[in-house]
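U., I forgot to send this yesterday:
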Amino acid sequence: MVKVIVSDDAFKELSKLEKKNQKLIYQKLTRLESGHFSGDKPLKGKHKGKFRKRAGHHRIIYLRENNILLITVIRIAHRKDVYLN
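Result:
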């Protein structure tokens, strides 16, 4: 099993979304916690070393630390805004 930590900023972004989208993202986070990384893409450029998981029109940006099986969710936002910052 993998430990998933959601940052305060990501949790705040998640709480602003519609309930339907929150439920979908929660399901995706549960899959991450189960160790399902299929379909996740490594990011490039200034976001190198991070990964993204699709959740409808939203993206979950996370950092995977293999040695200790820890995933830190950095950002949850709409796909048009998630890579800005």
